[in-house]
Specification:
single chain, mainly alpha, 19 helices, 76% helix, 0% strand
């Protein structure tokens, strides 16, 4: 559960197996699983491409589009209106089937937006039944929100849950999260050491989102300790990481904290490629790889005219006039 490399390998293999077998419905689920692995790595644009391909398969096969992964992606991106709409649309089904994903998405969204009461309540509601497979994702959200709302009892519950599992698990991801959660529970030199341990452990994993979260929390703690120069270093790192990943709400949070240290934050810019929609980006990459419009249409289950329409928009956004230029631009 805590091995991010193994998770990504499994998801990738499932996609490959499903494609080899031609099992489109299975491929739809495998792509959603792979998108979750990309999200953990902070590769939100890649996750969006996987989600978009899964949606196209659903349209082509007449099956129901999956909601969970798009909902969680919108939460990580800090797109409140989109995430809230997806959460609300699936809330009745989630309550009936006791899904954890809706509350997890809420907790991520509200932690990013700094609405910690709502994040704590959403995470705690889902965490109490100790759901299989989701506890390791819920605990970081619960701990952060509990710390921000001074709910020490809830924070201690999160630490106890983690300790029970990390005693028998060897994982940089697990060790990094445990160190960060323990830092939230401590003060002074102990907290400082634990934050640094968390950064060291998470730096050796693919969990880039969690690494950026530790830099953000450490920077926030340093600022409250009056160590503004030290805080700026970690807040800049968090801001740059969240901005590059497209985690907008967390980037805004890092920016606000950086301004509170007395530093003027540099203007955050997003590469032109990030302005492409997931479908435009997918079509542009396939075109850059040498596929014809007809081949792209067949692969994505859309018409050649739709491919031409999106490719024309991608050319304009990327300011290129040929597929050769497109390949150079995307590389």
């Amino acid at each position: 559960m805590w091995d991010d490399e193994a998770l990504h390998r499994l998801a990738t293999r499932q996609v490959q197996d499903a494609r080899d077998a031609g099992a489109l419905v299975h491929l739809q689920f495998a792509l959603s699983f792979l998108a979750g692995s990309h999200m953990l790595a902070g590769e939100l644009t890649a996750a969006a491409l996987m989600i978009d391909e899964a949606r196209l398969i659903a349209e082509a096969t007449g099956t129901q589009a999956l909601v969970t992964t798009p909902m969680i992606l919108a939460a990580w991106r800090g797109h409140e209106s989109q995430a809230s709409a997806l959460i609300e649309a699936s809330s009745e089904e989630a309550a009936k089937r006791r899904w954890t994903s809706n509350n997890y998405a809420r907790s991520v969204l509200y932690n990013g937006l700094g609405r910690y009461d709502a994040a704590r309540d959403a995470a705690w509601e889902a965490f109490q039944p100790d759901p299989i497979g989701y506890g390791s994702f819920l605990v970081p959200e619960l701990a952060e929100a509990a710390a921000r709302t001074d709910d020490r009892a809830m924070l201690e519950s999160a630490v106890a849950w983690l300790s029970e599992r990390t005693r028998v698990i060897s994982s940089g991801w697990a060790a990094g999260i445990e160190a960060r959660v323990r830092a939230l529970l401590n003060e002074g030199e102990v907290a400082d050491s634990l934050y640094r341990q968390s950064i060291e452990q998470l730096s050796g994993t693919r969990a880039r989102l969690e690494l950026a979260r530790t830099h953000l929390l450490y920077g926030e703690w340093l600022r409250r300790e009056g160590r503004r120069l030290d805080a700026r270093k970690h807040l800049r790192t968090a801001l740059e990481a969240f901005t590059s990943m497209g985690a907008e709400a967390f980037a805004h949070r890092a920016e606000r904290e950086l301004l509170a240290t007395g530093e003027r934050a540099r203007k955050r810019t997003v590469d032109t490629r990030d302005q492409l929609t997931p479908q435009e980006s997918q079509i542009a990459r396939l075109a850059a790889e040498g596929h014809t419009n007809r081949e792209i249409a067949a692969r994505l289950f859309i018409s050649a005219s739709t491919v031409e329409y999106h490719l024309r928009k991608a050319f304009r956004k990327l300011d290129v006039k040929s597929r050769t230029q497109l390949e150079d631009r995307l590389s």
